[in-house]
Design a protein that fits this description.
The protein is of the alpha/beta class. It has 15 helices and eight strands. Helices cover about 55% and strands about 10% of the residues. The strands form two sheets. A six-stranded mixed sheet has the order 1-2-3-4-6-5. A hairpin with a 7-residue loop joins strand 5 and strand 6.
Length: about 325
């Protein structure tokens, strides 16, 4: 059995590194990274640039925590494996080993467990993700059995936090996924200590607080916003300019296109065929197509990529769309 007390020195170092990396990434944020977020929902809530920037920075931290904590929990599992007799825990290089979707390999005498690790048991997957993960388990188990034919190989979904409707273990018995293990049971299964999960959070309690002061970052980003004209000197937002920088894509000289005034979907009921495109190109440019591979007509690149040609295809009644 391995306890948090056995690993506390190692874990404190890793918690410190986690916090340092978080602070470094946040302080290196640029305005371009933050303003790619959808502006409409924040325009409902904020008029002041400082409030907007604080919200964007906090959203960045929250969205990155899932990945960061996932990596940290894998490091905790590796530390357990280095100290527990009879259990070997390895980080899998999914690209090098050809095992996508598999994070850790837990080896015990006669048994190999292939783990896909998630931070929490709620909200990470939909039916498509579940199906994809099942296929990855099938592939990984077959590959592992090829190199270790005498071992029993299991596919495991491992959740560092949570449960499954009040249960700690859910047997799946599918071809790929054998069982899912959750929260306290996951950490006890790795370490042998039922209290490991609770002792681990006490280390986080003891970590330094207020390690992330974003006031200087917000001041820097506010200066950038005012320089670019996204915010006035008094801090009020110019949401129109922001959404224009993100979404504007029609040149002013082309904004009188007839098709913009109607419904372009109704004007095209199906994509034009290759021959229809060639006929339209010949009509517009007077270019005689040459024959390419397999006798297919071919025209010049300049003609093919003419935007006027696309407009012709959409509006010329002679093209039978």
């Amino acid at each position: 059995m391995i306890t948090v007390g056995d690993l506390q020195d190692v874990l404190r170092v890793r918690i410190g590194a986690y916090l340092q990396n978080l602070v470094a990434d946040v302080m290196a944020l640029t305005l371009n990274q933050l303003l790619t977020k959808c502006p409409y929902q924040r325009a409902l809530r904020y008029t002041n640039a400082q409030d907007v920037l604080k919200d964007l920075v906090q959203a960045f931290v929250a969205s990155s925590e899932e990945t960061r904590f996932g990596n940290f929990f894998e490091e905790v599992a590796l530390a357990i494996g280095q100290h527990r007799t009879g259990t070997m825990i390895e980080k899998i290089d999914s690209l090098a080993e050809g095992l996508p979707g598999i994070d850790l390999r837990v080896s015990r005498p006669g048994e190999v467990f292939l783990l896909s690790c998630k931070t929490a048991s709620k909200g990470w997957r939909n039916s498509g993700q579940t199906r994809d993960q099942e296929l990855r388990f099938i592939q990984a188990k077959r590959k592992t059995l090829g190199s270790s034919p005498d071992d029993r190989v299991f596919g495991v979904m491992a959740y560092a936090v949570g449960d499954s409707n009040g249960t700690w273990l859910a047997w799946q018995m599918s071809e790929g996924l054998d069982f899912s293990i959750y929260g306290q049971a996951y950490w006890a299964w790795l370490s042998g200590d039922p209290s490991f999960y609770k002792d681990l959070i006490h280390l986080f309690e003891q970590a330094p607080k207020n390690h992330l002061d974003i006031s200087g970052l917000v001041d820097r980003l506010l200066s950038d916003m005012q320089y670019l004209g996204y915010a006035a000197p008094d801090g009020s937002m110019d949401w129109g300019r922001i959404v224009e920088s993100l979404s504007a894509n029609i040149p002013e000289c082309d904004q009188d296109w007839d098709w913009l005034q109607g419904d372009p979907v109704k004007k095209i009921t199906r994509p034009p065929t290759g021959m229809e495109i060639v006929e339209a190109l010949v009509r517009e440019h007077g270019e005689e197509p040459t024959l390419g591979a397999r006798g297919k007509p071919r025209v010049s690149v300049d003609t093919l990529y003419s935007f006027d040609t696309l407009m012709t295809l959409m509006e010329d009644p002679e093209v039978p769309l």
